[in-house]
């Protein structure tokens, strides 16, 4: 069992409701509620843990919970945050449009909201939206993919959840780069919903229909790792190159072993900490300390040339 799996188990069993009292501006302490997607995915698990650790370091209580992409669960968790008198809410939204109601509900209860990792389709509600620069990450990822795969051949794409704007942003970023190569042809694309098992199953389906593909470009690491498993089962991994996105520990290990060509690392450690820091600043002064609501954080490529530097990618310093 990996240390990240153990950590996810600890988080899932150590998330009791933590009761606190509301605090006015200029007062420190109280409960910060942190709602992530699914701690079973090491990326989201790290997101919650890093934010929780930073909140604790600054003198707050922290409660981490997960909506697993379900807006009804998300709404109920926001209700719990309100009932528990949270002083701030850190939220990785379940749905770009469907989460707006939950954000509004928290704001109506005078709880400032700070969004991380994913956006909502409305500005002016959250105090801050801190996300990876997915367009930049997709562009550098696609450029790296071409270096590995080459400039001609048939390829397939695995897409993330349609309800998450990041999925479309990454796919469009890939297309902008790859469409410049007229001898590269996308012959298949399927939605894998950010999930490893779905990535595996969708890869099997695409491979059966298109056995001649030379590469797979994936919207995240979990789907990429699922695709790698399917390719290994079919005895085709040596002929098909796969690229990922996130920089998860499993993906870094796969880059090191040569099974994954590269991963685009999202700076989750940085924006998870900064969301807490900005919440703290807002609670104490009434201001976040930054001028823009939406803040983009650039991604970096991890490949065989630099993978030794990223043995613990989610704990990189600012």
UniProtKB/TrEMBL annotation:
Cell wall biogenesis/degradation in keyword set: no
Entry GO CC: cell envelope
Compartments in which it is found: Cell envelope
A Pfam family annotated for this UniProt entry: Peripla_BP_4
GO molecular-function term, one example from the UniProt record: carbohydrate binding
Keywords carried by this UniProt record: Signal
Keyword Signal included in the entry's annotation: yes
Broad class of the protein's primary localization: other
Family as reported in the entry's similarity comment: Belongs to the bacterial solute-binding protein 2 family.
Name of the protein in question: D-ribose ABC transporter substrate-binding protein
Organism annotation: Neoasaia chiangmaiensis
